[in-house]
């Protein structure tokens, strides 16, 4: 045996012995970086992981990844979970609304959200906002009215899966129609925007001198003697809802229809990408031109599927979970990584360029919206990036076989199957 061969055997034996000693001492194992130690796998005494103190099991059981985080989670991170489920409802005759703004969800700087329901004939009174309003119908039907800055009105009926977008300052109204009315979620392109501080028709008229109202509308002051002194906000209309064509004819302007369509049928569009693991529908200014400050993606992940490791380079991501059950880990510098669980009605938030994935942890399709304060949807895939980087360079970073790296797919998957 040569000295070279003998040295190799001795070195290999030393490495094996060191590895065995490290494992027996509870040092890092595969899937547990262990620096700093986090996760139940690090417990040498299981009693240390018990929770004998006060608990709310109904709440705690909704968050298994908070109660027992993966060992790959590390350090802390701003809370990126919120929910409409625990937001206070404002209920009035005609419907209700609840909101999650930055006041409730500190990390959400870019956008805020409102979940609203209008019963049959329920009206969200004529109003406007300083922010743009993007909306998705999640149940039933609704009638919207709007007028653009050139005095061109539009009236449309929208159904489940449809969107609308009103640029800042354009006045509009919403009304539930059909036998069940409609439910929808609004997104404003400002995290501090609130549904409770909109500019309302009733409030403006109530706080304008009667003689000014008379001069403005060319009517006697007595015509305004019964205007409300309190806002309507949401109210129940007493009159039957006329057919759409009748209303459109009544409001028709000699200047015609607005330049851009304010509604879009996301429900009927073909998916932008389909894989064995699910699908993605992207809606931005390329197919919904009026929506200049909000881009969106509707993501469907089949059971066991994975929204691949990725990030968005141009905007924060606000997520709204519609169906199913999922888990997301968010990665930041530090390193910091944290995992949270999501169910219908929950909201997630990922800051611009933070790495993340979303995994379906349930038995039915996981469906959620990704919302961005941007005109275009942009995404970078980790697997695609590494597949399009020289294999030897990637191998030096990962200690992987370059031949395995060459098997990475150069096309973006978006959704991976189980």
Could you characterize what this model shows?
Mn(2+) 1 binds at residues 127, 129, 133, 172. InterPro entries: Bicupin_oxalate_deCO2ase/Oxase, Cupin_1, GPI/OXD, RmlC-like_jellyroll, RmlC_Cupin_sf, TAT_signal. The longest helix has 22 residues, at 3-24. The chain has helices at 3-24, 57-60, 64-67, 201-206, 210-217, 244-251, 382-387, 391-398, 402-405; strands at residues 81-83, 90-92, 95-100, 112-118, 122-128, 133-147, 153-159, 162-166, 172-188, 199-200, 234-236, 263-265, 273-275, 278-283, 295-301, 306-311, 317-323, 326-332, 336-342, 346-350, 355-360, 366-372, 380-381, 415-416. The protein is 17% helix and 34% strand. The strands form 3 sheets. Strands 2, 3, 4, 5, 6, 7, 8, 9, 10, 11 and 12 form an 11-stranded antiparallel beta sheet that branches. A hairpin with a 3-residue loop joins strand 18 (326-332) and strand 19 (336-342). The chain has 2 domains: 83-264, Jelly Rolls, CATH 2.60.120.10; 268-416, Jelly Rolls. It has 9 helices and 24 strands. The chain has 418 residues and is of the alpha+beta class. The model is unreliable at 1-27 (pLDDT under 50).
């Amino acid at each position: 045996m040569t000295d070279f061969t003998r040295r190799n055997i001795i070195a290999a034996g030393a490495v094996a012995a060191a590895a065995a000693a490290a494992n027996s001492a509870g040092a890092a194992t595969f899937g547990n970086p262990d620096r700093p130690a986090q996760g139940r796998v690090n417990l040498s005494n299981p009693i240390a992981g018990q929770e004998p103190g006060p608990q709310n099991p109904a709440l705690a059981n909704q968050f298994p990844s908070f109660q027992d985080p993966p060992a790959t989670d590390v350090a802390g991170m701003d809370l990126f979970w919120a929910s409409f489920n625990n937001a206070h409802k404002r209920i009035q005759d005609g419907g209700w609304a609840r909101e999650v703004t930055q006041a409730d969800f500190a990390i959400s700087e870019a956008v805020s959200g409102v979940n609203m329901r209008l019963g049959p004939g329920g009206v969200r009174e004529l109003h406007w906002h300083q922010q743009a309003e993007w909306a998705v119908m999640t149940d039933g039907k609704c009638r919207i009215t709007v007028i653009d800055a050139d005095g061109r009105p539009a009236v449309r009926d929208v159904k489940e899966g449809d969107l609308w977008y009103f640029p800042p300052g354009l006045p509009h109204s919403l009304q539930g129609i059909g036998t069940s009315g409609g439910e929808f979620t609004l997104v404003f392109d400002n995290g501090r925007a609130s549904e409770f501080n909109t500019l309302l028709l009733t409030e403006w008229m109530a706080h304008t001198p009667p003689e000014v109202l008379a001069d403005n509308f060319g009517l006697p002051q007595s015509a305004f003697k019964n205007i409300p002194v309190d806002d309507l906000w949401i109210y129940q209309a007493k009159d039957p809802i006329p057919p759409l064509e009748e209303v459109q004819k009544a409001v028709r302007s000699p200047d015609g229809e607005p330049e851009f369509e304010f509604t879009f049928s996301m429900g009927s569009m073909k998916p932008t990408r389909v894989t064995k693991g699910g699908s993605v529908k992207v809606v931005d200014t390329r197919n919904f031109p009026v929506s200049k400050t909000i881009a969106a993606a509707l993501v469907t992940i089949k059971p066991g599927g994975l929204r691949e490791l990725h990030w968005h380079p141009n905007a924060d991501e606000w997520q709204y979970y519609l169906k199913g059950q999922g888990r997301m880990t968010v990665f930041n510098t530090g390193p910091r990584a944290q995992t949270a669980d999501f169910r219908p009605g929950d909201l997630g938030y990922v800051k611009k360029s933070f790495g993340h994935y979303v995994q379906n942890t349930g038995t039915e399709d996981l469906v959620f919206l990704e919302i961005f304060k941007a005109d275009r949807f942009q995404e970078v895939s980790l697997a695609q990036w590494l597949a399009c980087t020289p294999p030897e360079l990637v191998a030096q970073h990962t200690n992987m076989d370059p031949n395995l790296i060459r098997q990475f797919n150069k096309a973006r998957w978006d959704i991976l199957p189980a």
